[in-house]
Amino acid sequence: MNGRIAVYPGSFDPFHRGHLDLVERCRPIFDGVVVAVLENEEKLPLFTVAQRMEMIRELVGGDGFCRVESFSGLLVEFMDRLGAKTIVRGLRAVSDFEYEFQMALMNRHLNPRVETVFLMPKEEYSYLSSRLVKEVYRLGGKLEGLVPPTVLARMARRLGEPRGGSD
Ligand code: PNS
């Protein structure tokens, strides 16, 4: 992967259509994107890092534009190892702003050559989050159209079939 490489970091537990939409939005802007899954021992994730990397690869890993990796420690150090200078993050609503603003400025403090670029996902995904995906799944709500079928199948294997359903 050469040229203008973006790093799209996150927990992706699980990866949903809002994430997928963001990767697609990177195509006309960058030469490649590395989806970087955080290895975070503090959080109790639904999927292991390896499972998350696998589910992301199934969806975006096919054509050489997108690579999936994991990282621990500082994001800017991971980016140094890759030779990447641009972080991509999704901005869904004003409520995301404060957290994203803090992270962007902290990353700039840690490495002034690293720039954060925010992309807005498609409106229909602007309320979507991994946390809500897990909650709605557990309570049997409808997630079709918001979560790729391959991810829903993995959730079913991990959590069992969802409750009753809301149809
Ligand atoms: O999907 P998330 O959980 O909002 O992603 C958060 C993530 C992975 C982007 C952030 O926690 C991160 O970059 N962690 C790595 C540690 C780090 O570099 N911290 C200092 C800069 S904020």
Give a verbal description of the structure:
With 167 residues, the chain is of the alpha/beta class. It contains six helices and five strands. It has helices at residues 17-26, 49-60, 75-82, 94-110, 130-138, 149-159, and strands spanning 5-10, 32-38, 66-71, 86-90, 115-119. Strands 3-2-1-4-5 form a five-stranded parallel β-sheet, sandwiched between helices. Strand 1 (5-10), helix 1 and strand 2 (32-38) form a beta-alpha-beta unit. It is globular. The termini are far apart. Bound molecules: 4'-phosphopantetheine. 4'-phosphopantetheine is lined by residues 9-11, 38, 74-75, 103, 106-107.
Rounded mean pLDDT is: 94
Amount of beta strand: 15-25%
Structural class estimated from helices and strands: alpha/beta
Principal-axes shape call: globular
- Terminal Cα separation, in Å? 45 Å
The spatial strand order of the largest sheet comes to 3-2-1-4-5
E-strand count = 5
Order of helices and strands: EHEHEHEHEHH
Q: Which cofactors or ions or other ligands sit in this model?
A: 4'-phosphopantetheine
Low-confidence stretches: none
Largest sheet data: 5 strands, parallel
Radius of gyration: 16 Å
Oligomer description: single chain
What's the number of helices? 6
